[in-house]
Amino acid sequence: MEEIWRDVIGYEDFYLVSNFGRIKRYRSSKKNKQEKILFQTTTHHGYKRTLLQKMGFKKNLFVHRIVAESFIGPRKEGLEINHINSIRDDNRPENLEYVTRSLNECLVHMGRKRGVTKHNWGYQAKIWFNGKCICLGTYKEEEVAYDTYKREYIKLRGFDPW
Predict the structure, then answer these.
(1) Among residues 14, 41, 50, 153, which one has the fewest Cβ atoms lying within 10 Å of its Cβ?
(2) For position 2, what pLDDT does the model report?
(3) What is the tally of helices (H) and strands (E) in the chain?
């Protein structure tokens, strides 16, 4: 896959962000052009952050927010960014989506395997797509429910994030 660079929203002409989740400083002058890939720290929750500076002001920003705004578009009020494959430092645009807070919390607490919840009667596979919850069925074994979820995920989204 080719690395694609776009302006960081709010920091145009200062920083660029790539579809791999890398951020670089871009400064140009008549004499030279300097580019430098920025260092990213990892929070204790597993999210990547980086420090951006403009006109003497410094801001420590989440990388997934920078990527989402530049590649998906502006975030509407009331929405959060979800990492589709649940890997918090995987900041590729195809792994990010805007969701409501309640949906984001639901996804976090769905259990060990994303898309599968345990009930007294078995394991239920369900997937959220276009703001709707689609029940894929109930299974006796967790692995069967998870395989069903993964198959449907690839069918609906067109890629395998695992």
Answers:
(1) 41
(2) 93
(3) 3, 12
Cα–Cα distance between 147 and 129 in angstroms, integer?
A: 17
What residues have CB less than 8 Å from 126, skipping those under 6 apart? 115, 117, 133, 134, 135, 136, 149
Q: pTM of the entire structure?
A: 0.67
Measured CA to CA, the distance from residue 91 to residue 43 in angstroms comes to 14
- State the maximum Cα–Cα separation within the chain, in Å, rounded to a whole number: 70
- Give the pLDDT confidence score for residue 110 in this predicted structure: 56
Correct CATH for 5-70 of 3.90.75.20, 1.10.1040.10, 3.40.630.30, 1.10.287.470: 3.90.75.20
Residue boundaries of the structural domains of the chain: 5-70, 79-157
